[in-house]
Amino acid sequence: MNLIPFAGVAFLWFIGVLRDRLGQQEDRFFATVFLGSALLFLVMLFAAAAVIGAVMLLASRTEPNELTSSAIFHYARAVAYILNNVYATKMAGVFMVSTSTVVIYTGIAPRWLAIVGYVSALVLLIGSYYIGWSFVIMPAWVFLISVYILIDNLRSP
To answer: Based on C-alpha coordinates, what's the Rg of the chain?
Structure first.
């Protein structure tokens, strides 16, 4: 739970690096969708983490059988699930679609990364309910783009 804020800061740095690479090529429409979906994703992630953290704190102070049978526990679990697996996942998909579109229009990364982004976003937007491990798709795609940018920056003088 304590690593989630660091992941959020790293994601904000990633957004900054992408916007810096775009420079003057940045389209206002896609920049708005790109930045808005990224920030909404972070808000949903942090809100879900706060709810899960509150449940864990509550669990450490009460009897386990008493906690799991309480209505508050079931409500908090449902809220955290919906925030993370529905809203945050969908915002991650929107972020991936807008970023992939910007990549294709500006050429700041290879086209194959954008295509992988579109396919991954489709999995998140449509199939995330059915695929339990789908939450790792977006971080893996961000990692791919980050590695490409790092290698590209090291290659250029």
So the answer is: 18
**Cα distances (angstroms) measured from residue 142 to each of 59, 76, 100:** 34, 29, 11
- Two tokens, residue 146: 């980050």
> Among residues 45, 41, 33, which one has the least CA distance to residue 90?
41
Express each pLDDT in 17-59 by its tens digit. 888 888 777 777 777 888 899 999 999 999 988 888 888 787 7
Helix (H) or strand (E) holding 22: helix 4-22
**Sequence spans of domains, the chain:** 26-155
25-50 as b/e: b if 16+ CB within 10 A: ebeeebeebbbebbebbbebbbbbbe
Instruction: Flag whether pLDDT at 143 surpasses 90.
Output: yes
Tell me: pLDDT of 79 over 80.
Answer: yes
Residue partners of 57: CB distance under 8 A and separation at least 6: none
